[in-house]
Amino acid sequence: MNNIFAKRRARLLAMKAIRDNYIPGDQMMSCPGCGKESRRKDVSEGLFVCPLCGYHFPIGAYYRLSTILDSGSFRELNAKLPAADPLRFPGYREKQRSAQRKTGLTEAAVTATGTIGGRKCVVGVLDSRYFMGSMSAAVGEKITLAIEFAAKNKLPLILFSASGGARMQEGILSLMQMAKTSAALARFSDRGLLYISVLTDPTTGGVTASFASLGDIILAEPGALIGFAGPRVIQQTIGQTLPEGFQRAEYQEEHGFVDAVVPRCELRDTLALLLRLHERGGRS
Fold it and tell me: Please, what is the average pLDDT of the chain?
């Protein structure tokens, strides 16, 4: 029983850290986008979007879910699925424990059922605070189980990506999650069910090359970095200068990879509208 309360307290502390942007008591926040300072209260009330330039601060998984799901509808799936160290990578266990203490998470993914605008759905979120949201075997398993739960119960699926790609410390087992999640989504699609992918900053590597890019509808937050390899790697490989804003959400929308760039303050209403338009759970 004490262990349960300890975990709940850790999650509450993690959510408070998100709201406080990790600087308790500080009244001002500096924006990485414009370099200017704004009152923490103003940024918080704007869902952690800079009121001066519109920069979208990274937010944690539980906070993200609280901004999207109807109040009281959150029911977490596979909350006890543990992190693993399949290759016994040196120092990996210690780094996992440190990430768990700092974030209150067991792994980089949180999945849940809930309602948006009264319509039930399955939602998964990658949290960039935990190993940059990288895809481990446990993350791949959690995402796959969420997809299979949605398929079994004929529910629409929404996945929020925020990732640095596959997790180095788990080697090929991490890369295998690309095929695993993609195969689960293929079976999900065969049932004619709706999958909405939401890309947030950053969405890169193996996550981009698998489930993040397979949505029936692909949305993105403003300014999100989206791509497989980083811009510097691509420039060095092809020996050419890339266009300005290459791999940002707006560029991806202009070139057809993203269906719409949606500000965080409009995301809940946009998802509610899409779910309403696909009321029966199938794709139009």
Answer: 90
